[in-house]
Input
Amino acid sequence: MLEKRKIVVGGLTLITLGILLLLSNLGIYALAKSWPILLILVGVLAIFRNMKELSGWLISTAGVIFLITENDWININKISVYMLPLLIIVLGVLLIFRKRQKKSN
Output
């Protein structure tokens, strides 16, 4: 079952990459501004493998942030003042919940 899943995931990854390259070459979609989609895809695939693994969530989040900034949907300079404090808060919350989960097991 796991082997079948890996084949499907690999195939979907190649199909997505091929579609993005084709659309970029046709001038329909700018791949130069959408490379973070690949980060999001890798992160989502990692999340599907193991929901509790933090790396998939971090890669997906980084991809979303890069996608937003590359396409100028949000001016990151205005909100960057809040990013470090929020990151520290989120990391603290994650540490607390991980400790509780380990104690309950």
